[in-house]
Amino acid sequence: MTEFSLPQPSVRLDIWLWAARFFKTRSLAKQAVETGKVTVAGQRPKSSRAVRVGEQLTIERGEEQFEIAVAALSDQRGPAPVAQQLYAETDASRARRAEQRALRIAARDGYKAPEHKPDKRARKLIRALGDLDAL
Predict the structure, then answer these.
(1) Residues whose CB is less than 8 angstroms from the CB of residue 118 and which lie 6 or more positions away in sequence, other chains included
(2) Measured at the alpha carbon of residue 23, what is the angle toward residues 94 and 96, in degrees to the nearest 5?
(3) How far apart are CA 30 and CA 115, in angstroms?
(4) Is the separation of the CB atoms in 106 and 98 below 8 Å?
(5) How far is residue 17's CA from residue 11's CA, in Å, rounded to a whole number?
(6) How far apart are CA 26 and CA 135, in angstroms?
(7) Are the C-beta atoms of residues 91 and 99 closer than 8 Å to each other?
(8) Backbone torsion region of residue 21, taken as left when φ is above 0, otherwise alpha when ψ lies between -120 and 50, otherwise beta
(9) What are the DSSP calls for 22-79, one per residue?
(10) In angstroms, what CA-CA distances link 54 with 98, 114, 131?
(11) pLDDT in tens, 13-64
(12) Which helix (H) or strand (E) is 5 found in, with range?
């Protein structure tokens, strides 16, 4: 007798990324996969690729980069606590994201927003300075 292995359950990559709440819409998830912002085991996949439990994904979203392992499969988008159970982020990835977040916060510390709207005199000065740029 030959042994047959049962097919492993799988979900499309773009659907899983949407269900795990990495992207707001499935079309955004598909676009991210097609533009190379998502890799599976170091390779660039198609959006229709089947994702299985245990696979390693790297996801770039804005300025953040996630390195995760697929922990569970879902094709339905649920609340955030449920979505976070679909993957396990590596400690190195979490530490790197926290460090980058701290650097971004430190970079914008130099700018102080004005406490109130500029008055009539300040608006005239701003307009005058704007005219200097046109010369």
Answers:
(1) 126
(2) 15
(3) 43
(4) no
(5) 10
(6) 48
(7) no
(8) left
(9) SSSSHHHHHHHHHTT-EEETTB---TTPEE-TT-EEEEEETTEEEEEEE----SS---
(10) 24, 50, 60
(11) 999 999 999 999 999 999 999 999 999 998 999 999 999 999 999 999 988 9
(12) none
Bridge partner residues of 11 (DSSP) = 51
Give the SS3 label for residue 110.
Answer: coil
| Cα–Cα nearest to 19, from 74, 82, 98, 96 | 74
DSSP state of 86: G
SS3 11: strand
Q: What digits encode the pLDDT tens for the residues 101-135?
A: 998 888 877 767 778 888 999 888 888 887 655 44
| Residue 87 host element (H or E) | strand 87-89
d(CA 22, CA 86): 11
Residue 84, Cα to own-chain centre: how many angstroms? 13
40 with 56: CB under 8 angstroms? yes
Whole-structure pTM value: 0.74
